[in-house]
Amino acid sequence: MTKIKVFVDIEEAKWTAAVENIAAVVERVKEAVFKRVEGEVDFLALPKTFGVNLCLSNDTAVHKLNMEFRRMDKPTNVLSFANLDDPDFDDVLTYEDFVELGDIIVAFETMEREAEEQGVSLHDHFCHLWAHGLLHILGYDHIMPDEAAEMEAREIDVLAELGIDNPYRE
User: Fold this and answer.
1) How much is the pTM?
2) Among residues 138, 48, 53, which one has the least CA distance to residue 95?
3) Beta bridge partners of 92
4) Domain boundaries, given as residue ranges, for the chain
5) Is CATH 3.40.390.30 what the domain over 3-161 is classified as, yes or no?
């Protein structure tokens, strides 16, 4: 059984009041995502421990990161930095017992605004963004229409397992 450890850093105090028992929510979503991609992401079959860094932040910090790394002068809901994009990732997989998969940063204010606009709870929208970020660091993307459909299908499946409605419904 693959071991996945999540290291949570709460930079924005609003997170603790907004999503009840956030540590348990993070764990449930993580388990649902990794269960869904089992057999699809080859390196997860290796006898390794994998780590993911989750930063629960705010618009100011995410805006700076979005500008620095994506040249987009605005905050966004979630940023994912996948280590599998690193040229040394295969060496780490070969020689290390602990493999960091990457970093995911979620902006509280953008998440809160989007949840209100979509008429969903902060809990449900956070679960969606967290699942979305995890899929990104596992190599899934949504740049091309076929990739987007594949990634969205996985998100819908994960959220359904958690009792959360399809966020892409018309």
Assistant:
1) 0.95
2) 48
3) none
4) 3-161
5) yes
